[in-house]
Amino acid sequence: MTHPKEILQQHLSQFVSLNKEQLDYVFSHFTLISLKKGQMLLSEGNSVDHEYFVLEGCLKAFYLNDAMKMFILQFAMPNWWVSDYNALYSHQKATINIDCITHATVLAISNKNREKICSEIHEMEHFFRWRTNKGYVAVQKRLLSLMNNDAKFRYEELLSMYPQLYNLVPKHLIAAYLGVSRETLSRLYQP
Questions:
Q1: What is the pTM for the complete model shown?
Q2: Domain ranges of the chain
Q3: Is 152 helix (H, G, I), strand (E, B) or coil?
Q4: Of 57, 77, 86, nearest to 161 (Cα)?
Q5: Strand runs (DSSP E) across 70-122, as ranges?
Q6: Is the confidence at residue 191, as pLDDT, over 60?
Q7: I need a surface site. Which of 130, 163, 167, 174 has the fewest CB within 10 A?
Q8: C-alpha to C-alpha distance for 187 and 166, rounded to whole angstroms
Q9: CA-to-CA distance for 81 and 24, rounded, in angstroms?
Q10: Separate counts of helices (H) and strands (E) for the chain
Q11: CA distance 44 to 13
Q12: Cβ contacts of residue 170 below 8 Å, gap of 6+?
């Protein structure tokens, strides 16, 4: 794996310009975490004080209802961010779970450290604002697609946007993301 600081630098440099000292300072506020396949990163009911930047692997953020039906909110692949943002920003307990679909490595940053570097480095404030806005737009698009499109269209749309998901994520998880049964997904997929 490329060095974590280089991966973060490549990600940040798409949106903001930091000099070497700024990058070193920003990176010093992150903690490297290695996770095994199936390991929980965040569990419902826990306190949430971090968000996570995925360096490698794939995670899923999901909710289990009272009937233990799984609803996947997000897959998080390399260069994606994941957390329970409602809990993080409102200082409440987690309502979602995050676990590893594959072995994964993430960089964790605490809410306190994110606010600290944002107040000290204007470019980082810009980056996190941009990232939050992009996430909001993605959620809005997904909700509109759920309301307006059938399962086949949503499936094709997902795989055209993220073709690597089909080989990375088990089909029952793709079905849970789309809000359909595994059997329905099998009918949609014609190899």
A1: 0.91
A2: 4-135, 149-191
A3: helix
A4: 77
A5: 70-76, 81-82, 97-100, 104-110
A6: no
A7: 167
A8: 15
A9: 20
A10: 9, 8
A11: 34
A12: 101
Q: What is the rounded CA–CA span in Å between residue 135 and residue 125?
A: 15
Beta bridge partners of 70: 64
Which residue carries 């099998």 as its tokens?
186
What per-residue string of b and e applies to 3-17 under the rule 16 or more CB within 10 Å gives b?
ebbebbbebbeeebe
pLDDT tens digits for range 158-189:
989 898 888 889 988 998 999 888 888 788 76
Beta carbons of 48 and 88 less than 8 angstroms apart: yes
CATH number of 4-135: 2.60.120.10
The DSSP H or E segment spanning 62 is strand 59-64
pLDDT in tens, 38-79: 999 999 999 999 999 999 999 999 999 999 889 999 999 999
95 and 89 in contact (C-beta within 8 Å)? no
Beta-bridge partner residues of 93 = 47
Q: How far, in Å, CA of 155 to CA of 174, rounded? A: 8
pLDDT tens column, 121-161: 999 999 999 999 988 888 899 889 888 988 889 988 898 98
Tokens found for residue 134: 């992009």
Q: 16 by DSSP, 3-state: which?
A: coil
